[in-house]
Amino acid sequence: MPGQNLRPPTIAVTPQDYQDLTKKLTPKPTIVRNSFWAFMVGGAICALGQVIINLFAAAGLGRQEASTAATASMILLGALLTGIGVYDEIGKYAGAGSIVPVTGFANSIVAPALEFKREGYVLGVGARLFTVAGPVLVFGISTSIVVGMVYYLWH
Amino acid sequence: MFEMVVSAFLVGGVICVLGQLLMDLTKPSFTPAHVLVTFVTGGAILGALGWYRPLVDIGGAGATIPLSGFGYILAKGAIEGVSQRGFIGAFSGGVEAAAVGIAAAVLFGYLVSVTFNPKG
């Protein structure tokens, strides 16, 4: 009979249960979507880095030097894109895909320095360059010294 | 010109997904700064254990462009410093190996910040 199946389905949950269920289910698609864009953008930035390595290698640089030069180039690129306001737009979608590569490190250096520029070139720009770079250098360099010391004691 | 580009994309993409999961599965107080510090420290430890080198061999820029690659360079430099100069090399090796990256970040960061003005 037509219309027989139009009766609303019986839901065996209370509104409270439903809210809990919604809360539990909502973040998951976000995580998948965030991870997808982090993969695509982060992968693309690294692929560009590889093209630059290959170009430096073709220009006659050794493997190590080509890699170092490419990293420096990517830092310049990340700094420039932050300067013209493009990098933060990418970051809205890419999340960690734009944070983890060295271009994101450059972004973390330029963004606070730009923001506090009116406080001057010393305590504004000069100091704020290290808002994030400072902790990165502290932890990175300290870890490397500990690694070196352990290696020294080991051998 | 395009050799290793696909593997760089894949390895780099996976490393960035790890960073994304680190952000999404932890408290909001785990900021991008914490992600970068975790990656540089993690890269240095993995590098010291000899576990990061295979990633660099497979993924090229996919492993060196993420900040974990910066940590790897620091640890690798410290180990080479010790084997060449003994104990003092633990202090000099890491920073020496990472010098270009650090210097580039300081100079380019400063120049760009001085040249451009914040939006809005």
Outline the structure in words.
The complex is a heterodimer of chains A (155) and B (120). Chain A has 155 residues and is mostly helical. Chain A has helices spanning 15-25, 27-58, 63-83, 87-94, 96-99, 102-115, 121-128, 130-154. Chain A has one domain (35-154). Chain A has eight helices and no strands. The mean pLDDT of chain A is 92. Chain B is mainly α. Chain B has one domain (5-115). Chain B has helices at residues 5-24, 32-49, 53-59, 61-64, 67-85, 89-97, 99-115. In chain B, α2 (32-49) packs across α5 and α5 (67-85) crosses α6 (89-97). At the A-B interface, α2, α3, α5, α6 and α7 of A face α1, α2, α4, α5 and α6 of B.
Question: Helix count of chain B, per DSSP?
Answer: 7
Question: Quick one: biggest sheet of chain B?
Answer: none
Oligomer: heterodimer
Number of domains of chain B: 1
User: What best-fitting shape of chain A do the alpha-carbon axes yield?
Assistant: elongated
- The secondary-structure element order of chain B is HHHHHHH
